[in-house]
Structure formats: C-alpha cells, structure tokens
Write a structure and sequence with these properties.
Helix content: 25-40%
Order of helices and strands: EHHEHEHEEHEEHHH
Distance between the termini: 62 Å
Largest sheet: 3 strands, antiparallel
Strand order of the largest sheet: 5-3-7
Structural class: mainly alpha
Shape: elongated
C-alpha cells in the first residue's frame, strides 16, 4: 500500500447529494462507503493529494431520503397498476394511444429496476415524449413510422396512468393499431378511478403524481404550498 503510485485527489464529491449531504436511504448504507479517519490525517491527505471535501457526519440528507422513498413507492404502485390495466386490446375503451418507443424503453428499464438506495441511482423516464413522432413544421405525424420500432400503442387506462405519473404528451389517439389510421376522440372518461384527486383516492393520486415525486421530490409541505391540500 505504501509503495502504490499516486492515487489522485481525495474525491468525496461524488457521494454528496445536491444539498451537500449524503444522499443515501439509510445511515447503514452511508457508513459502508467510507473508512473513518482522524481530521489531522484527512487534512494531511488533502494537502498531499488535493481534493475533498471533509465529511464530518454520517447523517443522511432528510430531503433526499424523502425523495428516495417517494420514488420507490411510486415505481412499485405504478408497476402494479400497469400490470392490472395493460391489455392486448383497447380494454374498456375503443381507441389506441400511441407512445414513442424510445420513451417506452426508458420506462421498462425504470419499472424493472431494483429499488434505489442512493439519490444518484434514480433513473426515471421523464415526461412521455411523443414530439419525435410529430413533424414540428406541419404538426402532423411524420411519415415512415413503424409499430414497435418507432412507437407502441396502449389502451386508455394505461395512457392516462402514464400521463398522471410522468406528464408529457401530446395525445395521439387512433381507431386502429396503426398511427396512420383514423383519429379517435380522447377518452377522458377512462382515467383511473384509483387516481381521482378527491376522496379516498386523493392520497394515492398525489403519491403517484410527477408533481409530488419529481417536482417536489417527496416533500409534502412543498407540494401543499404549490398545489394545495388533498381534497
């Protein structure tokens, strides 16, 4: 060990969350990543090799802890609802809803991943992004798009779930399993009953929303300030 080549600067920055604390799910997980040394020894290492910063406490960031918990809880609840409502046909509706295949691949990786234990491991798919399927100049569907290669289709229940959880769009609603088939009116009456923003489902509706998990990062007080209390 004493004969090793120059190890480079001390690098504790990668372990810090945006709030300059440890962005782990628990103290136990934070402790596993470090070896505790005395302050004089740490200062000597920094003086010789550069880098930093000093981490004086193994306490985890409470803001990131709340964000991790909200992220994991939403991912599991979303997966359960997709499993419940996804079908090989239009389900309870009469139309298909087009979703960009690139976004779907991101969603699959996110949905199948293990629960995260570090804020850096989050891999949300982001808002549904169908803009790639639309010609920006004409506002109509681009030519040459192929099912499964460029887009997939889901039923109304799954579409409204995606929009509630991740936001985005726009709605591309079709009568057939083909993006070039006739347009169909959006079926707003098929939004999930589990995600109604009032009554017994208000809490679940909030906990699955991108406003709570992504924008407010699991901070209930911030959510209430922005969107008001649950009704």
């Amino acid at each position: 060990l004493t004969a090793m080549s120059h190890p480079g600067p001390v690098d504790n920055f990668e372990y810090l969350c945006p709030h300059n604390q440890l962005g782990c799910a628990s103290i136990e997980m934070a402790v596993e990543q470090f070896v505790q040394i005395s302050r004089p020894l740490f200062q000597a290492l920094v003086q010789q090799y550069g880098g930093g910063p000093a981490i004086d406490s193994m306490e985890v960031c409470q803001k990131c802890h709340a964000h991790i918990r909200a992220y994991n809880d939403r991912k599991q609840a979303e997966f359960d609802l997709v499993s419940k409502y996804d079908t090989r046909d239009t389900g309870e509706g009469k139309a298909w809803y087009v979703v960009d295949a690139l976004w779907v691949n991101k969603w699959k990786a996110y949905a199948k991943s293990e629960n995260v234990t570090d804020i850096r491991a989050m891999a949300k798919p982001g808002p549904v992004s169908n803009e790639r399927l639309i010609d920006a100049k004409t506002g109509v569907v681009r030519t040459g798009l192929k099912l499964r290669t460029d887009y997939i289709c889901v039923n109304a229940r799954v579409w409204w779930l995606f929009k509630h959880v991740h936001g985005g769009g726009p709605d591309i609603c079709r009568e057939e399993l083909d993006i070039y088939s006739a347009e169909h009116a959006v079926e707003t009456g098929l939004k999930l009953k589990e995600l109604q923003p009032t009554g017994d489902t208000a809490d679940l509706s909030r906990r699955l929303s991108y406003q709570f998990v992504d924008e407010c990062q699991g901070d209930l007080e911030l959510y209430r300030q922005r969107y008001g209390p649950a009704r």
